[in-house]
């Protein structure tokens, strides 16, 4: 925390805006000391147990779980938007297949967003018409971006499948089995919202200027791509994939600890205790790895986690959600470079909820900087 006097009178601020409050919210509650995450009052464990991604998305956006009619209408609306404008797919021809998948997906969404009618209308009513379209277009575009990595053509949506299973089918070109589909859906549920993290804040800044919801989501995507944020799941898995066995993991961790290495997949700005999302996802990851003859990878992960937490938990550093999701995505057949994509897809829900919550009373967000020039 630094303190300055001058143009801003006496001001204190923390590096990275740590501990700074910029607004109030009813979307999520995060207790970083007890490891609790609630969406709209519901513990994430309970939602992961009992809900579909569609229900959770509705809850996050609207504040209440949908009743039967609302759930049916919302699911229908999401299905209605499963076919994004063809122009967004046509753009793939101009994007190199070695571009980062998140950049490919973001570029496609930029083009699709130009096709939202009345995009210039930024009143609350018009903004509220956008979440279903953005979410469903996003899923199809994200799947198309993943296929582009292998030079494959986008696939049409599978109307009979739910949101998460359909995304996987479109991305992988095969229908996931029940276990795979549920593991992936639960990973989307626990990543659907996480307060005003850096990407959500980026989205909030953009919406506060009077911009449209699509632009806010695109800003969130840019922020999420960084290696300290949504890019960490790819790096965490790539590290793990280089480790042959638990013994290797322990030796490598000790070597890196001595170098004060920043381990992707560990540490969190808010959680200074075990990340509740890790607790939910670990059994799904373990089971998927076991059924795919990849138990070794599970044991290597467990050894790495134990070694790093053993050394760093005193500092409040534990395994985070980005260290475990790759162990669900990998046995499904997603390439590591694509791992940030499902995280992004899920959490767009939370960004939109924060934007829509902020809009009615929102003031343009514009902080200051202390000038150090003489
Ligand atoms: N591995 C090793 N040390 C870590 C660490 C990690 N993953 N994360 C934080 N630290 C250490 C820092 O080196 C620093 O140590 P110091 O005080 O001795 O200098 C201390 O913890 C505080 O780090 P800081 O970067 O100020 O904390 P933060 O609250 O800003 O960190 C993250 C939050 C997420 C940026 C950070 O934990 C990180 O970079 N993690 C790895 C990337 C990642 O997994 N991101 C996804 C988060 S869900």
Give a summary of the structure in a few sentences:
This protein has 18 helices and five strands. It has helices at 44-50, 53-62, 68-80, 86-90, 101-113, 124-128, 131-149, 163-172, 178-190, 198-208, 213-224, 232-241, 246-258, 276-291, 295-312, 321-324, 326-332, 340-358; strands at residues 2-4, 11-13, 28-31, 36-39, 42-43. The chain starts with a strand and ends in a 16-residue tail after the last helix.
What is the CATH homologous superfamily assignment of the largest domain? Answer: Citrate Synthase, domain 1
| Poorly predicted sequence stretches spanning 5 or more consecutive residues | none
SS elements, strand count: 5
Q: At CATH's second level, what is the architecture of the largest domain?
A: Orthogonal Bundle
Lateral strand order in the biggest sheet = 3-4-5
| Bound ligands, named by name, code or SMILES | coenzyme A
Give the total of domains.
2
Distance between the termini: 22 Å
Structural class: mainly alpha
Radius of gyration equals: 21 Å
CATH hierarchy class name of the largest domain: Mainly Alpha
Average residue pLDDT: 94
Tally the helices: what do you get? 18
Tell me the helix content: 40-55%
Largest sheet: 3 strands, antiparallel
Spell out the key features of this protein:
Citrate Synthase, domain 1, 5 strands, two-stranded antiparallel ribbon, three-stranded antiparallel β-sheet, mainly alpha, 374 residues, 2 domains, globular, 18 helices, 55% helix
